[in-house]
Amino acid sequence: MSKIDRDGLSPRFWETKHMEDMNRPEWEALCDGCGKCCLNKLEDEDTGDVALTRVACRLLDDATCLCSNYRDRHQYVKECIVLTPENITDHLYWLPQTCAYRLVYQGEALFDWHPLISGDPETVHRAGVSLRGQTIPEFDVDEDDWEDHIIEEPS
Question: Which of 18, 50, 52, 54 has a CA 20 to 30 Å removed from the CA of 153?
Fold first, then answer.
């Protein structure tokens, strides 16, 4: 995915439509392009707490914070999760706190830096919310060492 297409969408559609009524372009446009969902996470088996690591999926483009092969990602990353209105409740526990899918599901407003609000896909990066230039490709770090790369969520 070289960019998220937000052209031709109804203004503020996320405030008037239920998630399950959104068409595919609207659903995809909710993504702010921060790259946080593509980070490998560690879950504490006892508490269920999820920690973000700086270790990114092999397909994450660190410069754009988008998937470098979004359309065919499941051929390379079988475990890549396809977030849908039907399964969002199963994934809320690990979605970033700033994620538009989480915010819209919870009835909260999008942040001013979200491209649907600002009209500019760069605002997520200028706001310091994205992981641009901060990730390590997953093949560069042994999985046993991922906990050495735990980070706080930029927000």
Answer: 18
If we measure between CA atoms, which residue out of 104, 95, 107 comes closest to residue 155? 95
∠ CA(87), CA(28), CA(3), 5° rounding?
Answer: 140
**pTM (global) more than 0.85:** yes
Q: Is the Cβ–Cβ distance between 88 and 19 less than 8 Å?
A: yes
Q: Does residue 4 lie in a domain region? A: no
Q: Is 94 a member of any domain?
A: yes
Q: Output the CA torsion 134→138→144→149 (10° steps).
A: 10
Q: Give the DSSP letter of residue 149.
A: G
Question: How many angstroms separate the CA atoms of 81 and 130, rounded?
Answer: 19
| Cα dihedral: 135, 136, 139, 144 (round 10) | -100
